[in-house]
Fold this sequence. Notes:
It is built from four helices and no strands. It is mainly α.
Amino acid sequence: xxxxxxxxxxxxxxxxxxxxxxxxxxxxxxxxxxxxxxxxxxxxxxxxxxxxxxxxxxxxxxxxxxxxxxxxxxxxxxxxxxxxxxxxxxxxxxxxxxxxxxxxxxxxxxxxxxxxxxxxxxxxxxxxxx
Length: 130
């Protein structure tokens, strides 16, 4: 289990390093990169709170076909709410950051927020036994 967590950190670090090399001109400060990753990790907490406030489970689409009901449950509870949480944290992360000046900067910041999100999400799944 610890080995899987270490491998995940290494892979995410290498992806982030590769994406940061694509930036031309003035590079991001380490403070900004850490801020983006931490905002992504905070997005997991926002996602978890949103799933508590909007409890959508199998019984929500009870009268439907089980396959369609399962698909809609996964679409709304996992995908839609998760992406909304990531988007909120991404917007908050770049809101007053003066280093984000062009579209490539926005894409790199979004990747960093996504990496922060996936790091914490996968670690919670790993220690939950999933």
